[in-house]
Write a structure and sequence with these properties.
This protein is of the alpha+beta class. It has helices spanning 16-35, 49-56, 61-66, 85-94, 138-155, 171-186, 194-202, 213-219, 231-247, 291-294, 309-318, 338-354, 369-378, 389-394; strands at 39-40, 46-48, 68-71, 77-80, 103-112, 124-133, 162-167, 252-253, 265-272, 281-287, 302-308, 331-335, 360-362, 383-387, 396-401, 409-412. Bound molecules: histidyl-adenosine monophosphate (HAM).
Length: 423
């Protein structure tokens, strides 16, 4: 036998048994973004490598070791997008969507990072993201958080995810704080792990984000960025907190929340759960007021977030919520005899024409009653429609109730529309 070919490690198929839960999540997302007046943007999956280097930052995990980059046949360095924010800004600048305008955009699709695969962390994963441009005040930051909160309700996972917020202040305030932080960390240099010692030189704020418990115990006593904010950022942050309080949205201020991408300033936030083990961040984002200009556009304030859809699927699955798995069909049509077999597609089409929202499947090929009924039951249909010579002659179908203990009935073809009410 020929050797079978398998999917790439960390890149998953989504099988029919799982697609209903994905569709449930995607349908709710579409509904909620429409509800807030956001418009969809679709950008290519491949971009020039420079785009991500210049936005996410050269000294980040993503750019240093996780990108799928390759030279194309022209010798240009291209990269499978590891995230959507840079792509959105690139497209916005290129098509003049951002300068002096307000935009509320959303996107959904695959992203690629060469990370070590584990539960909730994959090499191809999917993000739903939202980006808003041209809005400076904290009210749009609040809107970002409200969209998340509304989605948790729609998914039935409210109460399972917790909001953490922080402010990174302005670039200048952060530069000043970096010096204070480096001085503190230098005093504990021996106790830092190798990665943190390296970060201390390249990107010291990322030491705050270390998952190593020994480093965490040092970081606990480090000076806090939130105590070194510039006055405007401080005001922005306290207004954000005030609005969240007014709305009754619970949150924790986490001074160690710094995010792994370089473009952020002021508000950053993450929604985290304890139900997924190490990969508990289901949604993350914040402000990136400098990025539009950094990528060649005219300066525009910006804020956004992205959710990992695989993590949401795992979370929704783990809670075993009812009514999500919509498998099988509603109606299965069976043909008894050759004439019926010839007409079955016409009748199935008539059923679909009169009941556009029902899932209707016809038996294909021949087979005795027992064999066809076995297929009807396997299809999980609620009704079997049986067509034989008698039915053809009288212009009727026999309706058999597969999910209820009810006598079968004879239904005139002219009344096929009433099938919907029998499901
Ligand atoms: P991020 O924190 O890199 O931010 O990713 C956002 C979310 O994507 C994570 O919280 C997680 O749920 C999911 N995610 C990331 N990597 C993986 C992976 N390897 N496997 C599965 N899920 C993953 C961003 O990407 C920013 N662009 C978010 C943003 C938008 N900030 C402003 N606007």
């Amino acid at each position: 036998m020929a050797k079978t070919i398998q999917a790439i490690r960390g890149m998953n198929d989504c099988l029919p048994s799982q697609t209903s839960i994905w569709q449930f999540i995607e349908a709710n997302i579409r509904q909620v973004v429409a509800n807030y007046g956001y418009q969809e943007i679709r950008t290519p999956i491949v971009e020039s490598t420079d785009l991500f280097k210049r936005s996410i930052g050269e000294v980040t995990d993503i750019v240093e070791k996780e990108m799928y980059s390759f030279d194309d046949r022209n010798g240009d360095s291209l990269t499978l997008r590891p995230e959507g924010t840079a792509c959105c800004v690139r497209a916005g600048n290129e098509h003049g969507l951002l300068y002096n305008q307000q935009q509320r955009l959303w996107y959904m699709g695959p992203m690629f990072r060469h990370e070590r695969p584990q539960k909730g962390r994959y090499r191809q994963f999917h993000q739903f993201g939202v980006e808003a441009y041209g809005l400076e005040g904290p009210d749009i930051d609040v809107e970002m958080i409200l969209i998340g909160a509304r989605l948790w309700k729609a998914f039935g996972i409210e109460g399972q995810v917790e909001l953490q917020i922080n402010s990174l202040g302005s670039a200048e305030a952060r530069a000043k704080y970096k010096a204070v932080l480096v001085e503190f960390l230098q005093q504990h240099h021996d106790k830092l792990d190798e990665d943190s010692q390296r970060r201390l030189l390249t990107n010291p704020l990322r030491v705050l984000d270390s998952k190593n418990p020994d480093v965490q115990s040092i970081v606990k006593n480090a000076p806090k960025l939130i105590d070194h904010l510039d006055e405007e950022s401080q005001q922005h942050f306290s207004l954000l907190c005030e609005r969240l309080d007014n709305l009754g949205i619970e949150y924790t201020v986490n001074p160690s929340l710094v995010r792994g991408l370089d473009y952020y300033n002021r508000t950053v936030f993450e929604w985290v759960t304890t139900l997924l083990g190490a990969q508990g961040t289901v949604c993350a984002g914040g402000r990136y007021d400098g990025l539009v200009e950094q990528l060649g556009g005219k300066s525009s304030p910006a804020v956004g977030f992205a959710m990992g859809l695989e993590r949401l699927v795992l979370l929704v699955e783990s809670l075993n919520l009812p009514n999500i798995h919509k498998q099988g069909v509603d109606i299965y049509l069976m043909a008894m005899g050759e004439s019926a077999q010839r007409s079955l597609a016409n009748i199935a089409e008539a059923v679909r024409n009169t009941n556009p929202s029902l899932r209707v499947q016809q038996h294909c090929g021949a087979g005795n009653f027992k064999k066809q009924m076995k297929k009807a039951l396997a299809s999980k249909a609620k009704l079997a429609l049986i067509v034989g010579d008698d039915e053809l002659e009288n212009n009727t179908v026999t309706v058999k109730f597969l999910a209820e203990d009810k006598e079968q009935i004879n239904l005139e073809m002219a009344k096929l529309a009433s099938l919907g009410s029998m499901i």
